[in-house]
Amino acid sequence: MKTLIVEDDFISRKIMMELLTPLGECDVAIDGEEAVQAFRLAHEEKRPYDLICMDIMMPNMDGTEALKLIRAAESAMGVAAAHEVKVVMTTALDDPKSVVEAFYHGGATSYLVKPISRQKLMKEIRSHGLL
């Protein structure tokens, strides 16, 4: 499984890397702009991500905006909905407005509220057929 971790907080990034690295290749982006660049590069290299775990609140470009650009890029590339990258949005705030924006309007596959445990993350990954 190839994963992109998008997280501006160092400790959260480190935790996600420790949880996901045993499952396969992991790349890291520190904001939404880097996430979109990494997503496009992976497609250009014909090695797209299977999973993106992306924080909602980040500097420069937040996760919601990055997700919209990723979904628009998939649409422009002709990626069928069934083959879109699975995107799990993560948030420290149990803020219904942010979650609704990311989940329903942005095209997120699902979301998790931090702190994220190994058990919660693995359950989420399994539910998307990635394990």
From TrEMBL:
CDD domains: REC_hyHK_CKI1_RcsC-like
InterPro entries in the record: CheY-like_superfamily, Sig_transdc_resp-reg_receiver, ST_Response_Regulator
PROSITE patterns in UniProt: RESPONSE_REGULATORY
Keywords, sorted A to Z: Phosphoprotein
Record protein name field: Response regulator
Ranges for domain Response regulatory: 2-129
Pfam families documented for this protein: Response_reg
